[in-house]
């Protein structure tokens, strides 16, 4: 079956040159963006109940833009003046770049990984003497605590925000040729919103092994998968699939 419509379970990209917009134009398909999950911050009272005293930490590990936003939000709510000496360990360049929203980049000690958490770990290991705080959501990838424990560093996780299932009731009678998922939480949201969901002719595209596993556990057939050596990005995987089925 040909592909005409795609639903991406994430917010719409804010950049004009997003590869999704290029895909839409090149392959003449319609792409909608609707987040299946969203983030809600916890308040400072709940953070205190986790026995978190921000002044006790000399380094912050930031794995996403959300972790950046919510760390500085909690610091403000707690009336904690973030010291200039604080070290920032950012999982990727995108996270480090986003940090500029809150700090003067050149005046801070910022250490940047390439993309994955494992690629950040040598930098963390180099500064084993620091006391690390990991602001995160309630859904933390297991490789993060595993890696930190293996490094034998002094660290603590603090839940500063939660991943919450979005209300998708407005999609009940809407059909898309492809549904695109990036996390197990997105799959969970689909079935929490539509417990009786049947895949039928809908193609399922997933990013990452944990998302594949979640999809299969829910009885879904995965038709499109990324990253692979041939298609490292989701848009590349979608384009390859669309070219195959639409030329028939």
From TrEMBL:
InterPro entries linked: 4pyrrol_syn_uPrphyn_synt_sf, 4pyrrol_synth_uPrphyn_synth, UROS/Hem4
GO cellular component terms given for this protein: cytosol
Name used for this protein in its record: Uroporphyrinogen-III synthase
Ranges of residues in domain Tetrapyrrole biosynthesis uroporphyrinogen III synthase: 28-235
Example GO biological process: uroporphyrinogen III biosynthetic process
Lineage of the species this protein comes from: Bacteria, Pseudomonadati, Bacteroidota, Flavobacteriia, Flavobacteriales
One annotated GO molecular function: uroporphyrinogen-III synthase activity
Superkingdom field: Bacteria
């Amino acid at each position: 079956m040909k592909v005409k419509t795609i639903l991406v379970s994430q917010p719409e990209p804010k950049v004009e040159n997003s590869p999704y917009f290029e895909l839409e134009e090149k392959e003449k398909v319609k792409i909608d963006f609707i987040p299946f999950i969203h983030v809600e911050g916890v308040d400072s009272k709940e953070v205190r109940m986790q026995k978190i005293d921000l002044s006790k930490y000399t380094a912050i590990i930031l794995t996403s833009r959300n972790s950046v936003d919510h760390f500085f939000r909690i610091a403000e709510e707690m009336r904690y003046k973030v010291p200039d000496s604080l070290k920032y360990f950012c999982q990727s360049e995108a996270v480090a770049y986003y940090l500029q929203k809150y700090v003067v980049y050149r005046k801070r000690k910022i250490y940047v990984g390439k993309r994955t958490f494992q690629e950040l770990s040598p930098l963390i290991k180099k500064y084993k003497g620091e006391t690390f705080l990991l602001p995160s959501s309630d859904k933390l990838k297991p490789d993060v605590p595993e890696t930190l424990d293996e490094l034998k560093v002094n660290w603590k996780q603090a839940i500063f925000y939660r991943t919450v299932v979005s209300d998708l009731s407005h999609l009940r009678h809407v059909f898309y040729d492809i549904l695109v998922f990036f996390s197990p939480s997105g799959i969970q949201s689909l079935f929490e919103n539509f417990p009786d969901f049947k895949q039928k002719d809908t193609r399922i595209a997933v990013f990452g092994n944990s998302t594949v596993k979640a999809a299969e556990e829910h009885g879904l057939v995965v038709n499109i998968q990324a990253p692979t050596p041939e298609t490292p990005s989701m848009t590349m995987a979608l384009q390859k699939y669309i070219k195959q089925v639409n030329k028939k």
